[in-house]
Amino acid sequence: xxxxxxxxxxxxxxxxxxxxxxxxxxxxxxxxxxxxxxxxxxxxxxxxxxxxxxxxxxxxxxxxxxxxxxxxxxxxxxxxxxxxxxxxxxxxxxxxxxxxxxxxxxxxxxxxxxxxxxxxxxxxxxxxxxxxxxxxxxxxxxxxxxxxxxxxxxxxxxxxxxxxxxxxxxxxxxxxxxxxxxxxxxxxxxxxxxxxxxxxxxxxxxxxxxxxxx
Length: 214
Prior knowledge:
Radius of gyration: 18 Å
Strand content: 5-15%
Largest sheet: 6 strands, parallel
Domain Response regulatory: 2-122
Protein name: Response regulator transcription factor
Number of strands: 6
Pfam families: GerE, Response_reg
Structural class: alpha/beta
Helix content: 40-55%
Organism: Actinomadura violacea
InterPro entries: CheY-like_superfamily, NreC/VraR/RcsB-like_REC, Sig_transdc_resp-reg_receiver, Tscrpt_reg_LuxR_C, WalR-like
C-alpha cells in the first residue's frame, strides 16, 4: 500500500517508516503535523494515512481533526489513528462512520507489530480496526445503556466486536462460534434494539451508536 504518516515524535516516525518499508509498503510522506499531512494528501492521495492525535502547534487534537478532514474530503483514503489518548468526541465520530477504511489504535499496539500491521491491512482494504480499549473507554462514559439491558452476555460480546469494526466472520473466529450463530446474534441485537425495520441507515452503525450511548 501507499502510506502517509503524521507523527511528531521523530523516533517513532522513523521507526514506523522503516517497519512499513520492510513490510513492502511505500511510505509516500512522513510529516510532523496535521497541516503538512493535509498538504501531502492533497498533492496525491495515498491508500492509507497513519496519524497521531496530539501534534503541533497546540498538542491537543490537531491530528484527529486532520483525520476527520481527510475522511470528509478524500473518503477513499483509509485513516488509522494511532495515539496514546482516546479523544471521546472525535473517536465516537470515527467509530460510528459508515464509510469503512477507518481505525483507532492506542500506541501500545505498535509494540505488538503483527496487530498493528493487521489493523493497517484491514483499514487499507476498506474495513475497520478499533482498539478494544478505545471502545471500553467510550462505553465507560455512556449514560444511555438502558436498551442494552435486554441483550444476553453473548449478544453484548458480539456487539462489542461489531463496535471494534469486525465482520461477522471475524467475530465468529474471535468468539469461537459459527458464523451462522453470529448472524443469529446480530439479528437478535437488531430486534432487541428495535432496529429490525430501520431503513435508509446501516443497522450495524445504528446498533453501535446505541451501544456507545450516542
